[in-house]
Amino acid sequence: MLRVLTIAASCVVLTATAAATAGTSFRATGNEPSWRLDIGASQMTLLTNFGQDRLVVPTPKALVSGTTTKYVARTDKGDLTATIVDQLCVDSMSGMPHPQSVTVVVGGRTLTGCGGEPASLLQGAEWTVEEIGGASLVAGSKVTLDFAPDGRVSGQASCNRFRGAYALTGEGLAISKVAGTRMMCEAALMDQERRFLDALGKVQNFSIAADGALLLNTNDGRAIKAQRR
């Protein structure tokens, strides 16, 4: 039976940062034990015990400082504190990278997990490909990737421009409907373009390396490595 606890919480002491700011929808999740935190404009909801227990409080004011945002709500069960830090976090079960690391303290328990939209790690400035399946690019050639917020991906494939669609699931990344222009270039560039587009169509997930490089990992063990320049 679902237990709902609604508290008239007062706000807090905050010293914080992160992508989540007051009034912005934000979700964080964690494993072992399973939990989920939703922060909206008007209320903050924590689900625990596989969704059987739900704690609902008015969303406290958030203060942002540096790379940390903290929300503290006082309840009759003690303080509910959510701390969000802008740093890469990898989900312990799915392996999906997220832009924020999240710690929730409530009722004497500390819950850790990840938050924010994984897609935000892909979107933004254009990526320049450095390696395809472990091989460096042909000297003087250019291969790029640009992930748009609307689910489209485009760029330079070596000789031709390309475009396609991308989608994130709970566990991976899929790139589909890839099409491009049909210019002919020298054999080395055409071979590189073929290998790039073939790998792109087999991408199953992505990761972010310690140096900030994007790794698009395929279902046959290859990777497309790219950096922002």
How would you describe what is shown here?
- The protein is mainly beta and 229 residues long.
- The protein is 8% helix and 50% strand.
- The protein has 2 helices and 22 strands.
- It has helices spanning 119-122, 187-200, and strands at residues 3-6, 10-11, 26-30, 35-39, 43-48, 53-58, 63-65, 68-75, 78-85, 89-90, 97-98, 100-106, 109-115, 127-132, 135-136, 144-147, 152-156, 161-168, 173-180, 203-208, 214-218, 223-228.
- Strands 1, 2, 3, 4, 5, 6, 7, 8, 9, 12 and 13 form an 11-stranded mixed beta sheet that branches. Strands 14, 15, 16, 17, 18, 19, 20, 21 and 22 form a 9-stranded antiparallel beta sheet that branches.
- A hairpin with a 4-residue loop joins β18 and β19 (173-180).
- The longest helix is centred in the last third of the chain and has 14 residues, at 187-200.
- The protein is elongated, with a radius of gyration of 21 Å.
- It starts with a strand and ends with a strand.
- The model is unreliable at 1-23 (pLDDT under 50).
Estimate the strand proportion: over 45%
Gyration radius (Cα, Å) is 21 Å
Sheet with most strands: 11 strands, mixed
Tell me the total number of β-strands: 22
- Element-level helix/strand string: EEEEEEEEEEEEEHEEEEEEHEEE
Structural class: mainly beta
The coarse overall form would be: elongated
Distance between the termini: 53 Å
Q: How many distinct helices?
A: 2
Mean of residue pLDDT? 89
Helix content: under 10%
Low-confidence stretches: 1-23
